[in-house]
Design goal:
222 residues; alpha/beta; Rossmann fold; five-stranded parallel beta sheet; globular; binds BIS(adenosine)-5'-pentaphosphate
């Protein structure tokens, strides 16, 4: 592993902009993006038994049981690309027990980014979200519209992106957020996520640039 490789976690309510910021962070810093929700959706798409079970919880906006999620995330973190380039963990941990498991496996993040967004904004972001199945890119009909007609025609919507379901996801988030925050107080960066995506990224970029430079200095590679 490179001495300066970073281990970052990003957290926030549903549709707070985690995936959007991860696209910007990985583009600049080359970290491996590991999103618990994406791993679960891939499991559903594979038709596995775990995927079938996971979908039942996701439909209700509840946390998928640890038996399914914890090993899935651990295995991805241990892949050579994550170990070599550093990782950006998105949407994990979401409970105290998930945070404890991560610690027990020896994964210690350098920074815990928390996106803070007002609740009325979250619903609007969820309802307008669209995904490009070809590139994986995240769009919003109003805030990040597709660049071409061709892309617009192939956009899809997530099965849990309705106003009713986001309220359930938000409830689950509220029940767990404080416990998770308490585990990472010393490395937490709270970010105002209500702003335009570029302005949200500027806050994260400042912190990451500093962390990256500190790392290089400490490892003597400057
Ligand atoms: P997951 O897929 O992680 O969903 P989530 O946490 O609800 O978050 P989202 O992916 O909906 O939103 P995001 O914050 O990435 O926002 P985005 O950037 O897309 O999890 C889904 C489910 O899986 C959970 O409910 C649970 O059941 C299960 N699960 C996942 N992790 C688990 C775990 N660890 N344990 C157990 N179960 C787990 O942005 C949203 C929209 O807003 C987009 O359209 C975007 O273009 C737009 N947007 C983004 N930023 C801005 C901005 N600054 N201004 C304007 N628009 C913006």
């Amino acid at each position: 592993a490179k001495p300066e490789h970073l281990k970052i976690m990003i957290s926030g309510a549903p549709a707070s902009g985690k995936g959007t910021q991860c696209e910007l962070i990985t583009k600049k810093y080359g970290l491996v993006h590991i999103a618990a929700g994406d791993l679960l959706r891939a499991e559903i798409a594979s038709g596995s038994e775990n995927g079938k079970q996971a979908k039942e919880y996701m439909e209700k906006g509840q946390l998928v049981p640890n038996e399914i999620v914890v090993m899935m995330v651990k295995d991805r973190l241990l892949q050579p690309d994550s170990q070599e380039n550093g990782w950006l963990l998105d949407g994990y941990p979401r409970s105290l027990s998930q945070a404890t498991a991560l610690k027990e496996f020896g994964f210690r993040p350098d920074l815990f980014i928390v996106l803070e967004v007002n609740e009325e904004i979250l619903v609007e972001r969820v309802v307008g979200r669209r995904l490009d199945p070809v590139t994986g890119k995240i769009y919003h009909l109003k805030y990040s519209p597709p660049e071409t007609e061709e892309i617009a025609a192939r956009l899809t919507q997530r099965f849990d992106d309705t106003e009713e379901k986001v309220k359930l996801r938000l409830q689950t988030h509220r029940q767990n957020v404080e416990a998770v925050l308490s585990m990472y107080e010393d490395i937490t960066l709270k970010v105002n996520g209500n702003l335009r995506k570029e302005d949200v990224f500027a806050q994260i970029d400042d912190a990451l640039t500093k962390l990256f430079e500190d790392r290089k200095l400490n490892s003597g590679s400057l």
